[in-house]
Amino acid sequence: MKIPYTEVSETLKKVLSLSGSPVAVKLARNREEVPAGIPEAKEVVRHCQMVNMARRDGAIFYAPADKHQCNGGAWALGLKEITPSLQSGEHYFRLGKFESMPACRRTMDRIAHLRSGETYATVYAPLEKTPFDPDIVIIVTTPRNMLKLAQATLFRLGGRITSSMAGIQSVCSDATAQPYLTGKANFSLGCDGSRKFSGIVDEEMVMGFPIEMLVELGEAIKVVTTAPGSK
């Protein structure tokens, strides 16, 4: 199905007054899946920073494994093998995130991640300008807007939302790998790394959802934000 990326993106930006664009992310499995004409990233930075470059600056580019600075993010996205310090729990234990290495290990064992080597490169663009068909859309916005996005995801079928997060690896795992693997939207409070390096401010959260949800979500957001019971 042909998806009107520009139209839906502009709807989301207007209805939610987004400070930036929704970001289209593609997980290219090989070189051939990187769309022709898209430049390679010039800098070695983190996935969350790359998302911000598309969100804030309108950048369109791709990043193979050697352009990913964060080992945790690259592992979650299937670009690299997990490092021994991440696997054992030592990395986040040294950062003071957990009282013990076993506590950290229990968390790392549950971090959503693609199989190592499954991804050749990540590709980024602001949604309204995307020249490729993305796998995931990421939105960074306020809790009030996340409320409306949550309502929009439930508008047709109802139910409950269960988010998966751990206060670490929010943009790479929570907002990219998790929805890619589950086919469901995921909401995250962000993490220290993404807030430190990628421009996510204290008043913002992160959401990722599979591209298959985009059209329906774009229609539902117009309804839930103007409904009689909406704030």
Q: What would you note in describing this structure?
A:
This protein has helices spanning 5-16, 47-57, 71-76, 84-88, 90-94, 101-108, 143-154, 170-182, 192-197, 214-224; strands spanning 23-28, 61-64, 121-126, 136-141, 186-188, 205-210. It has 231 residues and is α+β, with helices and mostly antiparallel strands. The protein has one domain (5-224). A six-stranded antiparallel beta sheet has the order 2-3-1-4-6-5. Helix 1 (5-16) runs parallel beside helix 10 (214-224) and helix 7 packs across helix 10.
Estimate the mean pLDDT confidence: 96
Low-confidence stretches: none
Whole-angstrom Rg: 17 Å
- Please state how the strands of the largest beta sheet are arranged side by side: 2-3-1-4-6-5
Number of helices: 10
Work out the helicity level: 25-40%
What is the total domain count?
1
Tell me the total number of β-strands. Answer: 6
Question: Largest sheet at a glance?
Answer: 6 strands, antiparallel
The topology string of helices and strands comes to HEHEHHHHEEHHEHEH
Proportion of β residues?
5-15%
Structural class: alpha+beta
What is the first-to-last residue Cα distance? 34 Å
Overall geometric form: globular
Q: What descriptors fit this protein?
A:
single chain, 231 residues, alpha+beta, six-stranded antiparallel sheet, 6 strands, globular
